[in-house]
Amino acid sequence: MAGRKKQARKAGAGRRVLVGVGASAGVLLAAAAMATGSAITAAPAHADFEDLLDPIIQPLLSSFADAVSAVDPAAALDVTSWTDSLLSSLGSFDLALPSTDSALAAAATAAEPAASTGPYDLPLTVLEGTEPTVNAAIDGSSTSVPLLVDTGSSGLVIPSTDLGSNFVSQLEALYSLGFPTGISESGYSGGVDYIYLTYNDVPVTYADGLTTNGPVDIEVYSWDPSNFGSLFTNDAFQNFLSGNDVNGILGIGENTAGPGTSPFESFGNVTVDVPGKELIVGGEPVTGTSLSGAPISTDYISIDGGPLQAVSNDVDSGGVTGTIPASLLTSSEYNSSTDLVNPGTTIAVYADKAGTEELYHYTVTAANEPFVVSGSSMDSGVEPFLLGPISMEYTPVGTGTTIFGG
């Protein structure tokens, strides 16, 4: 189904690929040159492409070969010599970078917005019945774009193609953002892995007078792990977002896999209130049942009134219809040919194993069938958010708290 997004993978973990292939490769090659860890303190104002790119390209080569081989062993190539040739041919070019002093100053002053209590009430819309979104303008743009409100990941992620209508304008926009603080890799289990640059001083303007100044993660190269051809088209992230009808992902969770940090951390908490059509930043969280972990906690699930079973639950507003492990279901409760829970099945989730603190319950329909997966963890999907407001607190740091209201 369109827009299947289950959860984020840990930033920098897992498989990596060669950067620089595909129609928009030049954006990554030029931008990545500005993102080498040593560049912040050591890069000259003008630097050779080869010197800047080699520390990034070389560590990715072996992983690229692994990725190619995993899809099509016969297509595994010796890409090292190709890349050396490319870097050598680019060696005569100079890349004008921001001065070291200005880069250091930007890094020193880049920070989250000053602590604020709020609240800021951002209009929230649900697209396709499962995708809560808010609009925001990135880096002073006159146009606001829809962002998927995702408690199941951390960090605002947008594709570089959002920055301009063509390669040149995208590269110019990246350069105007100044010096990135890093380069890393992440992905979403809905079918996309990507490499991104992190910028800590990008204004993002929401509604109700709210503006944050970073961090923002900008995707510069992406691929579908199951599609070898996507290694060369560099459009997997764009296709992924198109399926979700959004221009970016606003990750507002706390103890998630990544890729970054929520832009709202300094405000203390956020409340996703789908019935009230608001994303509330700061202020007082809802009153209700609190669970340690935002969004991941240990809950107890009952299927069709059966016994309560412990499960690690990712309370994920960006998880569409969610997932349930096959180990928690009987053969009559899901369709093994489609791996979907059967309509008519009742799902009830509790905070305690005694079943006295219900968090939410619903009956599966053809519109909200959870996917059946292996393992022992579930993803709530958007369903509990459709039923009532849920707050995510950013304390304690690194863990967070989820509060089910009402």
Outline the structure in words.
This protein is an alpha+beta fold. It folds into 2 domains: 267 residues, Cathepsin D, subunit A, domain 1 (Beta Barrel); 93 residues, Cathepsin D, subunit A, domain 1 (Beta Barrel). Strands 1, 5, 6, 7, 8, 9, 10, 11, 12, 13 and 14 form an 11-stranded mixed beta sheet that branches. It has a 6-stranded antiparallel beta sheet with strand order 4-16-15-27-28-17. It is globular. The chain starts with 7 loop residues before the first strand and ends with a strand.
Could you write a compact summary of the structure shown?
With about 400 residues, the protein is α+β, with helices and mostly antiparallel strands. It has helices at about 25-35, 40, 50-70, 80-90, 100-110, 165-175, 230-235, 235-245, 385; strands at about 10, 45-50, 95, 120-125, 125, 130-140, 145-150, 155-160, 180-190, 190-200, 205, 210, 215-225, 250, 270-275, 280, 290, 295-305, 310-315, 325, 335, 340, 345-350, 360-365, 370-375, 375-380, 390-395, 400-405. Strands 1, 5, 6, 7, 8, 9, 10, 11, 12, 13 and 14 form an eleven-stranded mixed β-sheet that branches. Strands 4-16-15-27-28-17 form a six-stranded antiparallel β-sheet.
